[in-house]
């Protein structure tokens, strides 16, 4: 017992001794820190004076120094947004000694008048002199607007700005301005910066502000009249840390095609606004997101992100989840189940349900109900299979990811509104109206996510717009695609609705956008606008959602055109005539651009043309043939091509370019090919350099409305 007591007392003494030692060390550390502060303030010098002297004379303060904001890049590493330095030019009029000031003031005043032009040389000199003798003023801003970095480098060679032992006083106040090389393309998606706070307030600039903004530094600044802060020297206490760079999934080629097609249709239809989203099926990577709002007659700008935040009744595009729910619930063969839609109008509990076709469709199979977008047909199918169990239908909508946001990494996504039977707004009509896209709210992106899942064999993919965040050392955060591990519906259901979506374009409400080169699958949607609580005839929210090529889907897309102003018949206001053509124009251009989705085209040219050595204008080729002593170029054609046969003989072929069919461009230089195609009204894209070796549209075919062609040069 005695040993235990003594051991406890010894431990207590050891702890007390240790505490005293730590206390003395902390005391000594505090004295060292205090001594360091005294030394920095009263003994460390800057330009021959202590910081205390500077502070007493010039009101020095510690202030934050903003960091360089990170850049935003496209999927192919093209710069979408960056920060460029700009400078205010000023002069501390009291720094230079009297002799230097007297000898150089005239030259400085002359340079200021010549370069800035805000005053005459005499005016600048008088103003500088007044500040120099003033008791209250010393710092003069020499130009009201900022200058560029190149201008700054020139000014650094001027008197008072060049480093001189007896001179000095020239100052540059640095500010950063955000610059978007592709503006106004994707302006709302990329986002903007609040000029006061320097923080992102919309789009990707806001969503990834914490990554982009970096960390501010700390350094001495001089407070001068007007509340301006002038950095003192170049050495900072804490260096600012540049922001991270954001690498997006956007492709500016796709964005350009989407905006051109959308803007053209909006101007033509005098619509209120429009939206286009293009997404890669397998990954959910968004290649383009265009949002255009009417800002005057024929003028459209990006001011609101309808793709992410624009909720509305989707209309008939919602017939896809309804049909999927019916197929999942009943396992029906949609080609064998029929309903009688009558003459195009039926009464349901005192309310009219109408189809767009005058006179109605009569008896339709379930497949035809979908392809022809019959509201009556959908109502009758719902009445037959779901009216007795509405909760089953609602559970399918949840399974299809329609009741929650997509979770895209952008701020401002508006949640979908899909009411259930606990809602006060639920009524005896709700199940019918919901089945074809009314009494709800969906964003275009949420609708597209469902269509993309169908294209992806039933596997739902989260839409994504940022793939990497990088710092100076490399990739800091990689955002992988998110794909659900279980399909949203059975393979049988997915197969059936894929066939229906193709049928809509082949023979249904969007047969006007069918293409001979590739198959589009999709669905039209035309919803009456809810204005002051009333669905208003003649005011429509039109859409087309789908994917292509239908046999091997690579891209999904959705087009929204709000309140088009038609002329003549009402069908000019419907989605098939408004939104669907925009989808096809965008898809055509992507198909021509992306060689990976094009079907191989059998060479239709004669065998000898595979070895084309020369092609061009006949008069130019005549000169070459005479110099090389070749067979003369045949007369009667503006263009010709030559192939080498055995024993070095030349075989000339006439190239007829006046036909309305696609011309044979093989062997032509880009200059000649571009001249011919643009005169025929084609939109030309190309890759490579040299002469044409491949063309996306085969020679001799009728292009119809497909006037986009890709040339491969070598």
Automatic annotation (TrEMBL):
**One Gene Ontology term of the molecular function aspect:** penicillin binding
Task: Name the GO cellular-component terms.
Answer: plasma membrane
Q: Which Pfam families match?
A: PASTA, PBP_dimer, Transpeptidase
Q: Where in the cell is it found?
A: Membrane
Domain PASTA: from-to ranges:
658-714
Q: Which GO terms describe its biological process?
A: cell wall organization
- Keywords of this entry: Carboxypeptidase, Hydrolase, Membrane, Protease, Transmembrane, Transmembrane helix
Assign the protein's first listed, main location to one coarse class: membrane
PROSITE patterns xref list: PASTA
- Protein name listed in UniProt: Transpeptidase family protein
Task: Name the InterPro entries on file.
Answer: Beta-lactam/transpept (IPR050515), Beta-lactam/transpept-like (IPR012338), PASTA_dom (IPR005543), PBP_dimer (IPR005311), PBP_dimer_sf (IPR036138), PCN-bd_Tpept (IPR001460)
Q: Which residues cross the membrane?
A: 21-38
